[in-house]
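User: tokens in, sequence out, please.
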């Protein structure tokens, strides 16, 4: 049974007095839409700023991150998808996705130690939103009621049109935001020239920027939605431009795949680039350009013979590209084991394989008319992709636990030596299970493993466990596990450091893997000399009465010349010398460094 279209809205005097610019006659004109959307997005921008502005507080706040995601996602989904008819559907859809993305953000923010809420599950949720929105819009247009379990029976032409229109409107609105900021900056500078700094000062306030950006985005979306007949023309123009590139990519892919038959795959692994990422990017472009050629339906497909031949070539090429990406990920997992990133990579490769298989099947069945077979398959794949992306984004499967179990097995079996084991990933990438495993290892009888695990648990960030791009050794870990009081050499030795300063030093990287010297240079000021020869001063802030630091850097050559050995740090003489130097002063103020 085919769903019927929603009844047309009754004519109004305003509508009958002018020709509607709407693409669908069921959507009456909504003159206030741009202003309403601008106001909604401006308020949302202010709320978002209030939630993310932590006033220099660096501690994670998962609940605030979740609320910020809820506000941002719900607002954008509502503004992009709302129509006067069934606007409550759009509101419910937007609030639902805002809540889902808030949950995902809340879980991601608290998953890894000191981690960011913008992790792989967040991007998977965003993908689910992007795919689900045109599905919702199409169902809203044609469904006789709210029952959504016949998504695969929706008209493909309308679904395809909604997907492209959303992309065009979103991109154009973001461009309008950029133009708006440039214009306001210009106006602010104009008034600043005559001594009026109000606009310029407002631009320096983040809350104003978020409100301005939100208002510009919402207003642009509202304007374009009210003229979606024009947007449809722009969409077709974009598709025509992209379709012209289809033969170029088709020829390149054919030549590339034929070349691989002669060279083999080894050169891909030796290239230094991520083979899987490149192959999946090429497959994504092939899908995009093929859809630009085949259009919304049989009457919309390109008529050029060159383009008609390029489309099936692109569709068929997706399968070998996806196969190479999957095989590349397979080799990576065999060599280095599972990590959350590799699990996501394998899933992406499997999705690409599914599309490649569907494309080959459509070409075999339909030949030159393959697009009539491919369109319903793409609709089913889109629905499946949205559901899969949502499932993977929600805290149901724990990729950190899977990765922890695999990496521990590799460590116990000797497949990876202790010094090559990725302790930073266990501490900062694998979530609670990774840190729980580290706590167990820290209690083991193997002193080397226990020391490295203890140090990884103590680290405040992953860079603490690396030096010059390489992971620290067991010797580094042994030193790093010491108390900060044991790492610092104080001069003069008779004068102790306050506990507050010790705590501050423990938060920095100066004494990470080698001793450091702390020299008192005043009643409330010390100079810290690190192993690399960097000098850093700590002093009591006269305003806050707390210890704080500032750096005295040097160029790389000078720093290399001053680099100290461990023997220098532990037993070398320390003294303060008075140095005479020459430097340029302008109006009593020093300019640059000393030059002699």
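Assistant: Sequence out:
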């Amino acid at each position: 049974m085919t769903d019927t279209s929603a009844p047309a809205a009754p004519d109004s005097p305003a509508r009958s007095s002018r020709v509607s610019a709407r693409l669908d006659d069921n959507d009456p004109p909504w003159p206030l839409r741009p202003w309403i959307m601008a106001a909604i997005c401006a308020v949302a921008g202010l709320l978002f700023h209030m939630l993310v502005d932590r006033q220099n507080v660096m501690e994670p706040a998962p609940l605030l991150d979740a609320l910020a995601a809820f506000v941002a996602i719900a607002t954008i989904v509502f503004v992009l998808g709302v129509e006067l008819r069934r606007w409550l559907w759009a509101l419910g859809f937007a609030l639902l996705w805002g809540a889902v993305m808030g949950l995902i953000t809340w879980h991601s923010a608290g998953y890894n130690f000191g981690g960011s809420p913008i992790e792989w599950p967040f991007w998977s949720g965003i993908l689910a939103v992007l795919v689900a929105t045109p599905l919702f819009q199409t169902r809203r247009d044609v469904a006789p009621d709210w029952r959504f379990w016949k998504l695969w029976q929706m008209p493909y032409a309308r679904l395809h049109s909604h997907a492209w229109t959303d992309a065009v409107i979103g991109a154009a609105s973001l461009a309008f935001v950029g133009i708006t900021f440039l214009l306001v900056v210009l106006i602010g500078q104009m008034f600043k020239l005559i001594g009026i700094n109000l606009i310029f000062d407002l631009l320096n306030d983040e809350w104003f920027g978020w409100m301005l950006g939100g208002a510009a985005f919402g207003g642009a979306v509202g304007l374009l939605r009210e003229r979606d007949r024009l947007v449809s023309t722009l969409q077709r123009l974009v598709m025509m431009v992209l379709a012209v590139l289809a033969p170029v990519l088709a020829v390149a892919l054919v030549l590339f795949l034929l070349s691989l038959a002669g060279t083999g795959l080894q050169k891909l692994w030796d290239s230094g680039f991520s083979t899987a990422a490149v192959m999946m990017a090429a497959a994504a472009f092939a899908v995009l350009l093929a859809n630009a050629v085949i259009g919304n339906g049989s009457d919309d497909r390109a008529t050029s013979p060159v383009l008609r031949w390029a489309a099936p070539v692109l569709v068929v090429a997706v399968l070998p590209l996806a196969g190479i990406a999957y095989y590349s990920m397979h080799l990576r997992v065999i060599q280095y084991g599972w990590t959350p990133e590799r699990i996501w990579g394998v899933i992406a490769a499997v999705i690409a394989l599914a599309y490649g298989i569907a494309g080959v099947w459509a070409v075999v069945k339909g030949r030159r008319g393959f697009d009539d077979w491919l369109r319903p398959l793409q609709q089913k794949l889109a629905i499946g992709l949205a559901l899969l992306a949502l499932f993977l984004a929600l805290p149901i499967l724990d990729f950190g636990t899977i990765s922890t179990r695999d990496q521990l097995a590799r460590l116990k079996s000797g497949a990876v030596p202790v010094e090559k084991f990725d302790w930073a990933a266990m501490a900062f990438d694998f979530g609670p299970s990774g840190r729980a495993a580290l706590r167990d290892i820290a209690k083991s009888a193997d002193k080397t493993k226990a020391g490295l695990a203890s140090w990884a648990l103590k680290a405040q960030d992953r860079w603490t466990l690396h030096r010059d791009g390489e992971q620290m050794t067991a010797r580094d870990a042994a030193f790093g596990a010491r108390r900060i009081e044991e790492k610092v050499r104080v001069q003069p030795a008779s004068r102790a450091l306050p506990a507050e300063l010790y705590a501050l030093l423990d938060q920095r990287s100066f004494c990470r893997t080698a001793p450091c010297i702390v020299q008192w240079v005043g009643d409330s000021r010390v100079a810290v000399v690190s192993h690399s020869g960097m000098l850093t001063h700590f002093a009591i802030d006269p305003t806050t009465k707390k210890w704080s630091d500032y750096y005295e850097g040097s160029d790389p050559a000078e720093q290399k010349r001053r680099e100290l050995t461990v023997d220098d740090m532990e037993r070398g003489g320390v003294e303060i010398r008075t140095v005479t130097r020459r430097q340029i002063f302008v109006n009593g103020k020093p300019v640059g460094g000393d030059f002699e």
